Amino acid sequence: MMFLRRVEGVTRLDKVRNEDVRRSLGQKAVMDIVKKKRRWKAKMEEMNGDHLVKQVYEAKVTGRRPRGRPRKR
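^ that's the sequence the OP posted. Answer follows.
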């Protein structure tokens, strides 16, 4: 939110609400974006198991990653 306020050119001392700053810049609230993503997840769970997307969504990764820092290549 601080970045949006800086772009808009207002500070907390100006007593402008976050909602007003978001609305003036045309940004969506984070909770609205999260709710939209949840709808996508519900569609994935309803989908038939034959779809490739559904199979990838439900796939389990086997094995372990190596310990420590990744090697330079």
